[in-house]
Every structure is written in C-alpha cells, then in structure tokens.
# Entry
Amino acid sequence: MIIEGERPIHYVARIFICVGIFILTVFFADFFARKLVWLFFHLDTQILQVKPADEFSRSEAIAIKVHQTFIALGILFSAVLTALVAGLQLKPFARLNVPVKAIQIPFLILAFAASVPVVGYLLTWNQSWNLPKDLADEFQKFEEMSNNLYSAFLKLNDGGFLFFNLFFMALLPAIGEELVFRGLLLNFFRGFFNSFQARFDTSQEVIPDDTVPVEVKPRNSVFSLHLAVLMSAVMFTLIHAQPYKLFPMMTLALVLGYLYVYSGSLWISIIFHFLNNSVFVLLTWAENHGLEVDWLQEDFQFTGGTTLVAFFVLIITIWFIRKISKPIGDY
# Structure
C-alpha cells in the first residue's frame, strides 16, 4: 500500500523506525529471556550457546526453547509496535486482510518443492568458498554456534515438543519476519522508490480543449517494485548474519518477496516461510524415529541438473501465481 502525498523522506524515516524498533525489541527480548532462564532454570544462556548440543540435559534444552521463543515474540511485537509508531493499520497495510485462494495452494506447494534443490545447491556452493584463513575461521565459528543452537532447540522433538517446535520455531518466526521484512519494509522501500521517482519523472497530458498541459502522476514503477523486493531481501539476509548461508538466504528472501507482491497476500509468503522452517524440524523428528533422511547427511548435495530444472519450475510457478492473483501495484 502506497500512501498518497508521502515524500521520500517520510518513507526513509519509516525504514529507520522499523529497523530500529526491530533491533531494540530483539535486544530486550533477549535480555528478559536470559533473566527468565536464570530465574527458573539457574542457567546462563550465553554459556549454553557454546555448549555442544549432544551434551544438553533436558532442562538445558527447555531453557534454550524458552529463550528462542522470547526472541520470536520480540520480532512479532516489533512489527506491531512499528505500525503503531508509524500510524499505520498493520492488517490492511501489510495485506494480512487478503485471504489465500484455494487455486493458489497447489502452486505455492510446487514453488516450495522447487525451491528446496535451488537453496540446497546454493548452500553447498556457498560453504565451499575459499576465504582467507582468519576470516574463514571466524565465519566457521559463527556458523557452528548457530547450527549448534539450532540442534539444541531440537534436542527435544517428540510428542508435545514436536508441536511446540513447529509453532515457536517455524510458524511464529514466519509470521513475525514476514510482517517486518515483507509487510512493512518492502512496502516502505516501494513507497520510497515510487515517491522518489514521482519527484523527477512526470508526464504531460493535453486536456480536451487543447489549452493547458496538466501534470499527471506517474504509474507505480515496476522497477521500483523490483528494487523494493531486492532491498527487503538484503535487509533480511543481513539481519540473519550467516555468511556461509548468504546466497541461499538471499535467494529465499527474493522468492518470499515476489510471492508476496505477485500474490497480493502476506499469507502466501507466511505459509511458504513456515514450510521452509518446518522442514528441518520434521526431518529431524523422522530421523530420530529411525527413518533415513538423505538431506540430513553431510555429504548429500543436489546435482546441477536437478537444480536447474527446479529453478525453472520455481520461476514458472511464481509466474502462474501472479497470473491467478491480484498483484500489489499497478502494472
């Protein structure tokens, strides 16, 4: 949604407000989570974050779940708070009021299935980079800590904990992150680029009596929309700060952005994001129950041919979603 009469500086202010509130709320959520974990479990989450996941006790695994749940709630709260500060109605602005159409569901599932080989191949390629040793060591430490924390969260993944993990590790982060990065930031960037263009790119139209030319407001720029998708994807990737997942994360963010703008509904990107988050939870559960999962093996990788076919299927599927939906913007 673009607000008529807004100047570029207004959108810049909203972008800074959104990012600032996001950082502050995550910081305070982390702070309160640490205090709560110490109060009830007498554990220091900073120490737990560097402890090997296979050495976690039951109480330590629950403590990590509590901590990460607060972070997810903080992200969700940051979207609500940003909308309040910016004077926006979050539901219509982010297009949460646009329901998912039944015809979109099969294309959405196909898009997700096609994205798995693409993201997987990029992950393998990204992790094969030959970087300077000092830089590579720092990146590797950060990556190992992130993966270890993820594994610790899934230490308890049976029974009720499976549903807990799916809700607080897959669904809640999907809703919060999509609200922030697609529902708010993408629209702020789009508003900025469109309003910036409107100040320098106007056309002249002659009225019927052929007397005075009048200024006509330019159409929403497709170029502005692509830039907005790109910038929101860059912000999404930077916030996650995982160097060895840079390209797969960026690709995923671009897919989420185009699904949002071409479907016209934030629920489409939320569902896709949830599916992406839930895959590893479910695969880990399957492996814990004796099922062999090739994707979880360290030496597994998708072939170039499979990835290329999947990439074209992904592009075509997103194109079909655009055709059967009412996209954001004026094309």
Summary: The chain has one domain: 8-323. Confidence is low (pLDDT under 50) at residues 204-219.
